[in-house]
Amino acid sequence: MDDVSQIAASEMGRLIERFLQYARKEKGYSAHTVEAYKSDLEQFLLFLSQKNINLTISAALSKSSLRAFTYSLREGGLKARSIARKVASLKSLCRYCVKQQILSVNPSKTLSTPKMDKPLPVFLTNSQAASLEEVTTNDENMRNRAVVEFFYGSGIRLSELHGLKFGDIDRQKMTVRVLGKGKKERIVPLTDQAVNALEDYLKIRKGAAGLHELIFVNGKGEQISRRQIERIVSKTLSNVSVQKKRSPHVLRHSYATHLLDAGADIRAVKELLGHASLSTTQVYTHISREHLLKVYRQAHPRAENDSVKDSS
Hints:
Largest sheet: 3 strands, antiparallel
Structural class: mainly alpha
Number of helices: 16
Radius of gyration: 23 Å
Strand order of the largest sheet: 1-2-3
Strand content: under 5%
Helix content: 55-70%
Order of helices and strands: HHHHHHHHHEEEHHHHHHH
Distance between the termini: 60 Å
């Protein structure tokens, strides 16, 4: 059953479509996350079809089918991070099936996720962050200034900024209401620079400005694309950093790291970032330690001598 339409119409195909709708509408996952689920689960379906495994739910979501698929990924030389994402997609689907009482037992519980070292997030140094203000101040495009200052001044995600509406901003209290992952709402304070950049942008912004209107728009007054936001940030960061990674998340990472470096309570930072778990936020304490060790090794003469000994 290699025909795409036949696969989509199968029992498993219809189940996956219902799951994607659930992830999108009930769980409130971003379009990027839902698209990742779709890609992973369609690959799983195609594998089953090519192996002539029946596309009924009971056959497809059996322990043997799940293991056969993950084994094929490892044999195919796929990187551990990519395998981990596909395993996570299968686990999410299986949990959904149990919740909806489609399955009585979760067959994915025995699936192992490849172990991998998590790379530390890329962030700006304090001096680079200081240069960032100078770069944005000199940027004649008021909207681009506001985008960058909002990211660094609030630590919000790309998907969150993309969907910001006028009603989400309280300019008097200098806060923004954010609808994060799983439709979880949080209130985040804004910096003076972010508020001022927003005020300057609104003076020249095109289009309607009602409470339910999106803030960041293009020259035609239409919603700016996520890709365009990424390009704005990348261009700005290229002026202050030589790092290859120049995404909006670099500004989010910088926001969190600089707060913790300045003595902010990690639980407060967790709430500001909208993290579900404290362990997710703790990665920024590792960044701070790594940064301090790097400074120490570069500045202390004996530390430098020790590093020479270690390399010999």
